[in-house]
Design goal:
Shape: globular
Largest sheet: 4 strands, mixed
Radius of gyration: 13 Å
Order of helices and strands: HEHEEHE
Distance between the termini: 24 Å
Strand content: 15-25%
Helix content: 25-40%
Number of strands: 4
Length: about 100
């Protein structure tokens, strides 16, 4: 995707904005809640949201657009998404688990 499109989508205010604080714990809580984690501990639906770097005051200073696909554990999603988000970054990540 073009970075302009990603930026508009990430900054439009229509997606949940999740900090990567606490070693990604907020990401895990969000994926569990929004993804409808079932008995198999995997998401029951895909989840689209924005990850931003703690301390950078939101995604306007750099973001990672994250799509967590159906069938992914919250723990796996955290491992894929918790890393630092560089200032002014416009990243996109699709998380899927085999």
């Amino acid at each position: 995707m073009e970075s302009v499109f990603l930026e508009e989508l990430a900054l439009a205010g229509i997606l949940d904005e999740i900090s990567n604080a606490e070693n990604g714990e907020a990401i895990g809580r969000f994926v569990r809640s929004a993804g409808g984690i079932g008995k198999g501990h995997e998401t029951q639906k895909s989840v689209l949201f924005v990850v931003y770097q703690t301390g950078q005051e939101g995604p306007q200073n750099g973001f990672r657009l994250a799509l967590v696909k159906t069938g992914v554990t919250a723990e796996f999603a955290v491992q894929q998404l918790k890393g630092n988000v560089a200032r002014d970054a416009a990243e996109s990540v699709v998380v899927k688990q085999n």
